[in-house]
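Incident log, support desk, overnight shift.

02:14 A customer reports that sequence design results differ from what the structure should imply. Their input is reproduced verbatim below. On-call engineer (initials T.W.) acknowledged and began investigating.
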């Protein structure tokens, strides 16, 4: 037996010889009553219901055999520990195999945290006969201790929001100062670099504003975030005669996806406004963030003069290339770039749904 199996309570029980027959034996159930691991068993056919719980299972759940035997798994109390998991313990047992997850169970003045496992026992023909559920205790706290912990977490969340608010304000101030400095720099090329830096910092400030306004932790709506970047870039750089074609769908992504995506879009829009439309003819810039079943397409395009012969985007060795590579790594994004002299530039960024 491997070390992992020795440490897995369910694995040890499952290695009992002829387990399907043993689960129908009163002597085996008496043996399980003295196992220091919470064990419960259900018969699956014709309708699944709990047939046995051992003493440790009663102790951890605060529910007696009389309350559980004859019921389905939904009768179990317990809520998932991860914040993004809304399943009850009973729902998880019904739908998961092997390691079900970590759960929190309240009864009396105690709050138990448990790890749960589930396994289906089949006959020789592969027909499911029993479900065996095992639980091991992670820890126990009094209700007062649990409430204190929850209050501590709420206090930390409040401090994080305050920190995000201050970071956003500081980034906005830094953006304004850099733009002011860029106007006073005598060297035009250096001034342009300052201005581009200000745009990148402003994109980060908008991201922090989105985080502070949301209620989903480190998740932001990509469509809304990109539209805010477009608005800021147009306001800062657009000459007269430029039209923006903006279409965005709602799509929640993690901050490690939103940040490089916002920086890439900021880069492309700034490039278009500064280089795609020389003279005073005007033109159209497109920003679409459209969601479909397989993922999301972010399209940034212009109908300007296009890239010069022999030039590509992103330009190797530049910061834009580093940001684009970050997006590839964090969200498994793919880039399709099309451009020709006199025919504008179109960059299609595709995020597969699961990685993003």
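02:41 Re-run completed on a clean worker. Output:
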């Amino acid at each position: 037996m491997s070390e992992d199996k020795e440490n897995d309570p369910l694995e040890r029980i499952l290695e009992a010889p002829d387990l399907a027959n043993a689960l129908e034996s009163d002597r085996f159930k008496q043996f399980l009553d003295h196992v220091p691991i919470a064990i419960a068993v259900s018969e699956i056919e014709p309708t699944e219901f709990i047939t046995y719980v051992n003493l440790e299972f009663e102790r951890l759940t605060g529910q007696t055999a009389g309350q559980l035997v004859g019921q389905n798994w939904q009768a179990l109390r317990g809520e998932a520990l991860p914040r993004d998991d809304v399943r009850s313990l009973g729902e998880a047992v019904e739908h998961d195999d092997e390691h079900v997850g970590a759960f929190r169970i309240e009864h009396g003045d105690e709050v138990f945290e448990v790890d749960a496992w589930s396994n289906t026992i089949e006959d020789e023909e592969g027909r499911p006969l029993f479900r065996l559920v095992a639980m091991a205790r992670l820890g126990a706290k009094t209700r007062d201790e649990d409430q204190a912990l929850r209050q501590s977490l709420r206090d930390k969340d409040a401090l994080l929001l305050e920190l995000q608010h201050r970071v956003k304000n500081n980034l906005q101030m830094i953006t304004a100062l850099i733009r002011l400095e860029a106007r006073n720099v005598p060297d035009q090329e250096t001034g342009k670099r300052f201005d581009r830096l200000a745009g990148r910092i402003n994109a980060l400030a908008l991201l922090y504003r989105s985080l502070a306004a949301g209620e989903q932790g480190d998740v932001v709506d990509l469509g809304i975030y990109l539209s805010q970047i477009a608005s800021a870039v147009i306001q800062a750089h657009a000459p007269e005669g430029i039209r923006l074609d903006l279409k965005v769908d709602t799509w929640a992504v993690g901050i490690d996806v939103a940040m490089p995506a916002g920086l890439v879009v900021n880069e492309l829009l700034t490039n278009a406004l500064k280089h795609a439309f020389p003279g005073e003819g005007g033109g159209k810039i497109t920003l679409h963030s459209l969601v479909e079943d397989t993922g999301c397409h972010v399209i940034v395009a212009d109908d300007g003069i296009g890239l010069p012969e022999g030039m590509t985007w992103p330009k190797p060795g530049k910061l834009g290339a580093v940001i684009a590579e970050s997006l590839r790594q964090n969200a498994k994004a793919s880039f399709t770039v099309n451009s020709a002299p006199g025919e504008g530039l179109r960059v299609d960024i595709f995020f597969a749904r699961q990685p993003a």
